[in-house]
Specification:
Membrane topology: Peripheral membrane protein
CATH topology: Cytochrome p450
Number of helices: 18
Distance between the termini: 98 Å
Number of strands: 9
CATH architecture: Orthogonal Bundle
Protein name: Cytochrome P450 3A
CATH superfamily: Cytochrome P450
Shape: globular
Largest sheet: 4 strands, mixed
Order of helices and strands: HHHEEHHHEHHHHHHHHHEEEEHHHEE
Cofactor: heme
CATH class: Mainly Alpha
Family: Belongs to the cytochrome P450 family.
EC number: 1.14.14.-
């Protein structure tokens, strides 16, 4: 009897000790922002404030901005994340101290074979990769690629014409996603696909698999609860992306390298040069550009610029009102709702001591809708970005593609595609709402800013 009593005492002691240690572990980091004097929502053990993401990043960030002001703290699992919207702090983090203290993005160590991709690579390795890839996106290179873009825009217009003739609604994401995907595969992989008419093409299927993102995937949740598992998963080459997808792109790139060895021309030659030392650095995901409001002023500006002549690169880039429409659309619906960097050392900025290892996040959604910066922020007003007003915009309050040396490397590439697509369409058609159009638009809660359900509009020929 004494033995069993002694054994029971030991068991209960160990159990209580385990529960106590687990409770301490689960809450250990949650005093970080109280020590810093930074407000923020109360965390839940292990989950932190992540449960609020069930309503979407954008809603959560907007609520925090409205409640806590310019600066607040949240917790992704046990990871403290300092949220900043002050232009001065943003300039310091994303530009002034980018190379010395805030070079790297957050790395969940779930990249598999893509650990050297330009979006993930760190420190000197990132600098080398970026310096090799950057020449592929100069104005000269974009001009060279423009004819390829126009070839795919012709395919897009052919699809639009078929839909318009049948008076059928168009799913904008499918059409523009296919248009941008075709251009990316043609320029980066030297492969011509018609993804709009061939959705079962292997390139289409694998890119779509690669772009799927589950905020509450088991691997990501485990990393949030137990960050020390990250290096272990990395050694095991576990990844967000299915192995079949990465294997497919490696095989495709090896085939392209072989073609180059035979003397075949490649548009993004410097893109392949990096393969001698590093695995492939993939271009940004196709843009989910939402076209929900175009007025007579835009159409008349396009008509006066090039009413009938074939679209040329230089005149396209000089269409000022078109630029304003695109910029204002990206203000209201920035593709990337958050820009993140990790502090490599403890540093004081604007009186706030940011400890080494803390994630610093810039929430673009509430910043782009701040009434103190953007009067009538919910209204679509392209004139905000016209010549007369552009100089008054603080560059650290608008960042649909990020800012500084580590902004989106494909930004200019994407903007040329967007300009070309809009001019091609609006010279021939009007967009009109139909019974299938969802009003108001509801956003998806996962990852990038995108509609929860397809945006459907109809095209009517212009007289």
């Amino acid at each position: 009897m004494d033995y069993f009593f002694y054994f029971s005492i030991q068991t209960w002691t160990l159990l209580i000790a385990f529960v106590t240690l687990f409770f301490v572990y689960a809450n250990w980091t949650y005093g970080a922002f109280k020590k810093m004097g930074i407000p923020g929502p109360s965390p839940v053990p292990l989950f932190g404030t992540m449960l609020a993401y069930r309503k979407g990043f954008t809603k959560f960030d907007q609520q925090c901005f409205n409640k806590y002001g310019k600066t607040w703290g949240i917790f992704d699992g046990r990871q403290p994340v300092l949220c900043i919207t002050d232009p001065g702090m943003i300039k310091t983090v994303l530009i002034k101290e980018c190379y010395s203290l805030f070079t790297n993005r957050r790395n969940f160590r779930l990249n598999g074979p893509l650990y050297d991709a330009v979006g993930i690579a760190e420190d000197e390795q990132w600098r080398r990769i970026r310096s090799i890839l950057s020449p592929s996106f100069t104005s000269g290179r974009l001009k060279e690629m423009f004819d390829i873009m126009k070839r795919h825009s012709a395919n897009m217009m052919s699809s639009f014409t078929k839909k318009a003739d049948k008076d059928e609604p168009i799913e904008l994401k499918d059409v523009f996603g296919s248009f941008s995907m075709d251009i990316v595969t043609s320029t980066a992989f030297s492969v011509d696909i018609d993804s709009l008419n061939n959705p079962s093409d292997p390139f289409v299927a694998n890119i779509k698999k690669m772009l799927k993102f589950d905020l509450f995937s088991p691997l990501l949740v485990i990393i949030g609860f137990f960050p020390f598992m990250g290096p272990i998963f990395e050694k095991m080459e576990l990844s967000f992306f299915p192995k079949s997808v990465t294997d497919f792109f490696y095989a495709a790139l090896q085939k392209i390298k072989s073609s180059r060895a035979k003397g075949e021309q490649m548009w993004l030659q410097s893109f392949l040069d990096i393969l001698e030392k590093y695995p492939p650095a993939f271009l940004p995901a196709p843009c989910d550009f939402i076209v929900d409001h175009f007025n007579c002023k835009l159409k008349s500006s396009l008509d006066s610029a090039a009413p009938f002549a074939p679209i040329q690169y230089q005149p396209l880039m000089q269409m000022e009102y078109l630029e304003g429409v695109i910029n204002e659309s990206l203000r209201l619906y920035p593709i990337v709702p958050r820009v993140e960097r990790v502090a490599k050392a403890t540093v004081e900025i604007n009186g706030i001591v940011i400890p080494k290892g803390m994630v610093v996040m810039v929430p673009t959604w509430p910043m782009h809708r701040d009434p103190d910066v953007w009067p009538e922020p919910e209204k679509f007003k392209p004139e905000r970005f016209c010549k007369e007003n552009k100089d008054s915009i603080d560059p650290y309050t608008y960042m649909p593609f990020g800012l500084g040396p580590r902004n989106c490397i494909g930004m200019r590439f994407a903007l040329v595609m967007i300009r070309l697509a809009l001019v091609e369409i609006l010279r021939k058609y009007n967009f009109t709402v139909c019974k299938e159009t969802e009003i108001p638009l509801e956003l998806d809660i996962q990852g990038l800013v995108a509609p929860k359900r397809p945006i459907k509009l109809k095209l009517t020929p212009r007289s």
